[in-house]
Amino acid sequence: MTTLAKHLLARIEAHGPMTVADFMAESLLHPTLGYYTTRDPLGAEGDFTTAPEISQMFGELIGLSLAQAWLDQGAPSPCTLAELGPGRGTLMADILRATRAVPGFHDAIHVHLVEASPTLREMQRATINTDVTWHNSIDTLPEQPLYLIANEFFDALPIRQFQRGGEGWHERLIAMREGALTFAFGPELPQPHLEHRLTDTVKDMIVETCAPAITTAAQIGGRIRDHGGAALLIDYGDWRSKGDTLQALKSHAFVAPLAAPGESDLTAHVDFEAIAQAAPCAHAPLTPQGVFLEQLGITPRAQALANRLEGPALNSHIAAHRRLTHPEEMGNLFKVLALFPPNGTPPPGCPT
Ligand code: SAH
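^ Those are the sequences you sent over. The predicted structure of the assembly is below.
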């Protein structure tokens, strides 16, 4: 049993069952035992890998999309270049490298990173070669034009789960049985915020809500509406989430979500409809990652890079291109939601 599991069991014994959201928040961000607070989870030796760790092309194309949106909006200065949950800092480093040649962009921007993990902040400091301001939450980002990227950030935000009863809902909880963590259900209660889900669910079906995603989307969208900018929110999920999508990963394999709290990554699919509705600005139709990257020219970029490679390096480059774009790999599972100013146009890569 992990040390955090013991801590959670003691908490349940003292205070009763906890919500899935409390379990996720404690598992991921407990100050001394949390998954993200205590380790670098990425890469081959870690528990999972992400698009920017697979290829530099991902960050390059995102950088060019955001810089083009900045140019199209009249190159406002000063402005914010922000990333939510930057992991090792690889994506931001690639964005900055790719946009060096965009006239005036680097003079106009200041880089802001929203990162809760002290361990990952240290890695970001070492990777990103420029003056950076860190934030614990999005609330403190400056009120100015905002160009923002979030890759695999929203999937780590704590969700609550509700199982449909008759006209009400049973909240899924984490309880204790025979000295171990176990799932349980609360009593059936009305949930006014789930009224709209009574039309597309039947009894016993699970739906998920993510309050921090809603408040984050409201903050981003408010700044883009008031000051201009653009946001690219990339994650796995769909327009409307349905069913239990809570999952845990350890050493690149799925494990039971309650098996190793604090030592396995916990995520849930992102409900993009809820994010789009909470953002008080315009949004583009949800776009598969593969389509987004193709529209930004990943294939010619891949060919240009391939000319300089041979042997195993060339093979892994070809595999990386496929992994990012192919519908059977990340191309369709991952989606891009672009936010932009009311009456504006979406950043390049996204359909209008
Ligand atoms: N975007 C990176 C890393 C994804 S992992 C990549 O694509 O490689 C998730 C990141 O979000 C980590 O940096 C983690 O520490 C951070 N994170 C998770 N929950 C957070 C929260 N509530 N507030 C701020 N950062 C958070």
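The pocket of S-adenosyl-L-homocysteine is lined by residues 28, 36, 42, 50, 52-53, 85-87, 91, 114-117, 120, 151-153, 156-157 (CB under 6 Å). The chain has 14 helices and 17 strands.

Shout if you want it in another format.
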